[in-house]
Amino acid sequence: MVISGETVLPNPLFDPTWRASGHVSDAIAVHRKLPGYAPSPLVDLPTVAADLGVDHVWLKDESHRMGLPAFKILGASWAVIATIQEMLGIDVDDWQTIDDLRDRCEPLRPLTLACATDGNHGRAVARMAKWLGFGAIILVPNDMAPARIEAIQSEGAEIRIIAGSYDDAIDASSALASDRRLVISDTAWPGYDQIPRRVIEGYSTILVEAQQQLTDRDAAEIDLVAVPIGVGALAAAVVNHLRATDSAVQIVGVEPIRADCMLESVRAGHPVQIPGPHTSIMSGLNCGIPSPLAWPIVSRGINTFTAVSDERDRDAVRLLAEAGVIAGECGAAGLAGLTLLREQGCIPERVRSVLLLSTEGATDRTAWTRTVGADLARELLRGGA
To answer: Which of 6, 118, 140, 189 has most Cβ atoms within 10 angstroms of its Cβ?
Structure first.
């Protein structure tokens, strides 16, 4: 299947001698204290492995992370709590439950958390505000699916619709910071990088969990990890975790063809902006410019970048559904990238074990049902998804 605009780009900036800092945060210790915390499932997908011509495909299923249908709560919670702890002069050992921390936050009120979002990050920030007794203002682009807006509103947040793209919403959010308003962004800008760095640190929990789960199953070491890329925060977390040592694991980044800002930046040798509108169904990846914090990490640490079409991504959503996994459009992007690599003969022969990061469930259930078909959707949802 040849689709116009799809791209496989071996990274010309990849540096095999570069090592990430290996910094270890308290993120997972915080996550373990939050309501509903449990390691997300690691699912073995033998039929997908057979399709890709490898021995094992493992999928980290983030469709039910602490009661939310995406992984974003990991970054939002650590960024918010680490910042709040700093403001209060406390650490993770000074509280035991979210209710304890909520009580400790009384001197900070009234306080509002704010951010821009394509959906999942904004809902996660709104959930943190609700847990801690703060207000929430969430800025969204004007083309966001109504289901995602309603989900954010269900957390009690105020929605502000921005005329333009996600990047325009980010620009607007940067002006919201004040003494009583804390901006929790997963992308950085000049003078603002501490909170986005903490978001990246928060995502490390996914990799820590996966490593333990693979060990518990006595599984072979992973040879390749496929990661969706928006502004690059999750990809930076993956690179930081895997490139702290001389790991030879291959890392593949996946973007939509109409928002492949990291791929085009790598091709140019410096960050570039992809003009909007960014209209891919992979809404959480509809980002026009890399985070300046993620860029130096991702550009040196990822082996191969791919840009995939919506058509290929829908196929990946269906393939995962047929394997029993509910993955939204962003969640299936990693598999979409690997099917493109397989078609072009670009999966290295030595790759036998693969890790997919399925970053979200069916966050727009209507669109997901339309993609997988009503009968299969009913069957999977009946199973408790």
So the answer is: 118
